[in-house]
């Protein structure tokens, strides 16, 4: 079936929105792919004898509209990205295929990234820019596993409906924030061990689910100021182990609390039905305590069928083999119930990293042996 010029334009604008509000640097493959799409779009317009100038004007005004009027413009894109994208647009619209010159700009440390997840809803994160490790943690940027687990759970929403859910190593909170929009959970607990990460989750929760009217319609200038000074601390370092943050989101009672896999008190663990984790299997030394915690949570649960779902991007097969061994040593049985990968245009998290496959573990206490279900892959 022939795709109309209008539909081609919609695809370009949608990809543009994804890359622009996901704060993907213009050096990334996503922008090159988008550039190729635009060239094909103009070639198709010429082939079908459309007025080329009118076609360019139409695309130009649509892309400019995104930058100036899209609903997400209340979360400011950094001046550097905005300027780079303006250069990119000029090159594309001028039909210039030469490389982009270097643009010197001070990038603010904190920026907004908005991800489209869950039926065209956006999750906005105020987080550190691009760096994979910042302030001694990997938790201030989002990882592919969070996207993979969100996308997978979107197909199996009933697994979480009315369930008590805990997430281990939540990072900036992309997974939980996506699930809180539409999964009807009874409760959701974000956890992490890092003070900055915990405060980042709280800030991101307030950003996505403003709880009182005073924070609801923040002035963009006020938000911009927040990005310049960085997220504020809701819980100070000295109280991070003893104080947790609570917010009711719809029917779901939501909490953010400190939970260190290496040092926790079993008697203070909550009773949950489902345990989630994404991209938390990477440091071999952490695998025994992490598996110990999963075992403790599953044993403590009073649910009919307590289950953990852990999404792991396949960066090191040796590490994943160690994880498999540790699970068995801790009396846990597992099945890999889904596996998939994203193309550079589909995933925008950690866009400087090449895109490995992600696998999803379903883990239960041995005795409740999980069988892969038909249709889950
Ligand atoms: C690679 S990041 C993944 C973050 C998030 N789950 C995602 O997919 O975007 C790993 C996370 O595990 C957390 N983490 C590492 N060691 C931990 C520990 N001992 N206890 C609790 N969290 C830990 C880090 O702070 C970080 O947020």
TrEMBL record:
Taxonomic lineage of the native organism: Eukaryota, Metazoa, Ecdysozoa, Arthropoda, Crustacea
Protein name: FAM86 N-terminal domain-containing protein
InterPro entries linked to this entry: Methyltransf_16, SAM-dependent_MTases_sf
Residues of the signal peptide: none
GO CC field: protein-containing complex
Natural source organism: Tigriopus californicus
Pfam families, alphabetized: Methyltransf_16 (PF10294)
